[in-house]
Amino acid sequence: MFVFSPNGDLFALARGSTVLDFAFKVHTALGSECVGAKVNGKQVSIKRMLKNGDTIDIMTSKYQSPKREWLNFVRTSKARNRIKSYLKRQEREKSMLVGKEMIEKGLTRYTSRGVDGKKEYQRKMSHLLRTFKLKDELHLFTALGDGQLSESVMKEIFGSALVKTRDRKEVDDELALTKSDVYQGDTSTPDTSKSGIVVGKERNILLKFCKNCNPLQHSLEEVT
User: Mean of the per-residue pLDDT values for the chain?
Assistant: First the structure.
């Protein structure tokens, strides 16, 4: 079908196209800020389906932006692609901000202050980017923000600084607990005669094991 702008310019559109389709047809910015239109002099919504020969005067607002629900009623591929592109960019920017905040919190918590701390941070950041084959920090922020990388990567970036900011013995105890004291799910009965069973950081707590199956890690039941 063919429709017209207020100046008499002719535009070809697929049948079933809406006011919003027409706005994106004219210009991407016009479509992104579209809040309605006057069709043949009558004010209508952005969802209004157009007819052959209509004259459309688009109404805009600088406070308007593409919405996901717009995808439910636009008909043309141009409008659909422009809306999807905008939404994807917004999601990427949001993820980047979330990821950046995560990194900055890690920097504040684990890295020493001053020039040495900044150098240490950059060294760890460079290593992480190489490890995950990321182009730059913005890509890392985005990957963290949208969940492609978990918060555990903080240990990769700031791990060695952890020892500098906490008591060395406390760190060594935690490492020893992780490597040897926690029951690892052996099918034999655990030997508690030497170091006992550790629950959290507590030793020699009264425990009992299930009689009908072999105990696995985290399957201990505390007797109260």
Answer: 75
As a whole number of angstroms, the distance between CA 211 and CA 136 comes to: 54
User: Which of 18, 42, 75 delimits the end of a domain?
Assistant: 75
Do 27 and 71 lie in one domain? The reply is yes
Does residue 82 form part of some domain?
no
Q: Does residue 29 lie within any of the structural domains?
A: yes
User: Structural domain of residue 152, as residue ranges?
Assistant: 88-165
**Angle at the Cα of 111 (from 109 to 113), degrees rounded to 5?**
105
> Edge-to-edge, what's the strand order for the sheet holding 34-39?
42-44, 34-39, 56-60
Q: Is the dihedral of CA 112, 118, 119, 125 positive or negative?
A: positive
Do residue 38 and residue 93 come from a single domain?
Answer: no
Dihedral class, residue 8 (left if φ above 0, else alpha if ψ from -120 to 50, else beta): left
Distance of alpha carbon 132 from its chain centroid, rounded?
17
Q: Which long-range contacts (CB under 8 A, 24 or more apart) does 148-151 make?
A: 151/102
State pLDDT tens for residues 99-119.
888 777 776 666 666 556 677
- Tokens of residue 147, six digits: 């969940």
Alpha-carbon span 107 to 89, nearest angstrom: 27
